[in-house]
Design goal:
The chain has about 350 residues and is an alpha/beta fold. It has 7 helices and 9 strands. Strand 1, helix 4 and strand 2 form a beta-alpha-beta unit. The strands form 2 sheets. A 7-stranded mixed sheet has the order 3-2-1-6-7-9-8, sandwiched between helices. The chain has 2 domains: about 90 residues; about 200 residues, Vaccinia Virus protein VP39 (Rossmann fold, 3-Layer(aba) Sandwich). One of its GO terms (molecular function) is methyltransferase activity. This is Class I SAM-dependent methyltransferase. It holds the Pfam family Methyltransf_24. It comes from Nocardiopsis coralli.
Length: about 350
């Protein structure tokens, strides 16, 4: 309506101006005696009516045009509103479809996944409880069997698990070795020291690559009064000899595989039990493989090699490699928490 008024206003002003001139023209002619007053009045009235009719016609044309434009705008707006409503309905429909999928997924999770998860959680909980119980039993048996000090270094975690230490102690009791060598050091070194002290013979030599950890183990040894039984030797990790690693391409790539400095234990001989629990997995692929080639010349005929952490892929692979390269070896897989393989010469 504002557009209509803006368009009509100039037209009305123009029409009014022209109409005023035309209406005043006959009286002006009559005033000058050029036209009788009666005719002048009639002519002014006719002119006034004609001007009004023209103005009305023009206004009607403008109104019609404005109505058409308004109709076009209404149709355009209606179309836009319709499209917006349709798009919104489509979005709502898609949202409902997504909601149905979510609802179906939740129903599936509630009906299938959650029961499975609960059953798996229950199995895992029972399995962990059984493992914890077994480790507690092994711990208690070790304490009672070895008559250790009241406060012993903890097992499990980074340290050996009680079931592995129990396995080691059983072999120490059976073999009564003069020398036990451990790749790595820590809590297990203390427990093996008690086992050797109980039998009244033998010593433990723990090979450690980390100077700080070696000092910690030495402090534990002193605390338990096992200095005469357990020795920790520092053997930094150095470039391993060619052929003692699986991935020979490592050297070409600039990644030199490392193992203990063998000069630290070159004087050892007649090793009755070898525990391979180091170096750490982060050292490289099959990081513990060199243990057997390095110690093989120094092993007693009835020696036992115990490989820890055989639940890991790397340790299982290097164990198979040992069997392939040393066919005289026999392997027994022990049910330990982290996995343990026991190697010995056939017939020993």
């Amino acid at each position: 309506m504002r557009t209509l008024r803006r368009r009509l206003l100039p037209l009305l002003l123009a029409s009014a101006s022209v109409g005023a001139v035309m209406v005043l023209l006959p009286p002006a002619l009559a005033a000058f005696g050029l036209l009788p007053w009666s005719q002048a009045l009639i002519l002014s009235g006719v002119i006034l009516l004609g001007a009004a009719a023209c103005a009305l016609a023009g206004g009607l044309l403008l109104v019609r045009r404005s109505v058409r434009q308004l109709a076009t705008e209404v149709r355009t707006h209606t179309r836009a509103v319709t499209e917006a409503v349709a798009a919104e309905r489509l979005e709502i429909a898609e949202a409902n479809a997504d909601l149905e999928q979510v609802r179906a997924g939740l129903e599936r999770i509630e009906g299938e996944v959650l029961p499975k998860q609960r059953r798996q959680f229950k199995r895992d909980l029972l399995d962990q409880g059984r493992k914890d119980y077994e480790q507690q039993v092994a711990w208690s048996e070790l304490r009672e069997h070895l008559d250790t000090a009241t406060f012993m270094p903890p097992l499990r975690g980074w340290a050996a698990s009680p079931d592995l230490v129990r396995l080691i102690v059983r072999h120490i009791d059976r073999l009564r070795p003069e020398l036990v060598v451990e790749c790595g050091s820590g809590s297990s070194s203390i427990w093996m020291g008690y086992a050797l002290r109980r039998q009244g013979r033998g010593r433990v030599v723990a090979i450690e690559h980390d100077a700080h950890y070696a000092e910690q183990t030495r402090a534990l040894i002193a605390e338990h009064g096992l200095d005469d039984v357990v020795e920790v030797r520092l053997a930094p990790l150095v470039e391993a000899e060619p052929g003692t690693v699986t991935d020979t391409g490592l050297r070409d790539k600039g990644a030199v595989p490392r193992w203990y400095d063998t000069s630290a234990f070159a004087d050892l001989d007649d090793i009755g039990l070898l525990l391979v629990d180091g170096p750490p997995e982060s050292t490289g692929r099959q990081a513990r493989y060199p243990a057997l080639p390095a110690f093989w010349p120094y092993l007693a005929d009835d020696a036992v090699i115990i490989l820890d952490d055989t639940s890991r892929k790397d340790e299982r692979a290097l164990g198979r490699r040992w069997l392939e390269e040393y066919p005289e070896l026999l392997r027994v897989e022990e049910p330990a928490e982290k996995g343990a393989h026991v190697f010995s010469r056939k017939g020993a």
